[in-house]
Structure formats: structure tokens, C-alpha cells
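Many introductory courses stop at the sequence. We go one step further.
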Amino acid sequence: MAEQSNKRTIRGVVVSDKMDKTIVVKAQRLVKHSVFHKYVRRHVKFKAHDEQNLCKEGDIVRIIECRPISKDKRWRILEIVEKAK
């Protein structure tokens, strides 16, 4: 990657590949609780564009922000980090 991009990239796990050319990616993060000072897991799901339907459920992928492709899709697949076993 020679040039720097200002688009966000997120790493997550594919939780659904039932749609055509679309996957659902679940991204987790740790947040410190304001009162109890323990770390709590928070997650958010993104719909990402998968042109060749390469991703399967359980794969770890990196997705990148892009222009709106449909009502819910604003992400596309950058790379498959690890295939599911």
C-alpha cells in the first residue's frame, strides 16, 4: 500500500453469507465500563459487498468503507485474513 487512504478499515468475523453478493460482518471491541471499571465487549454488524461470493460463515475478513451500494451496504471486502475451518 504505497498511498495512504483516509477510509476506515475494520476486521471482523463473517456471521452470515446467505444473501447474494453480500455478507454480514460482526466487529467486536472492548470498552471500559464507566462505573465498574471492567472491560465489556461491544459489537456492531456491518453489511459488506462480496462480488464473487468468496466469503463463507466463520471467515475473518477486513472490510473498507466505500460509497453506498444499497440501502444498508456501505462497506466492501478488502481481504480475507483467515478462512474458516
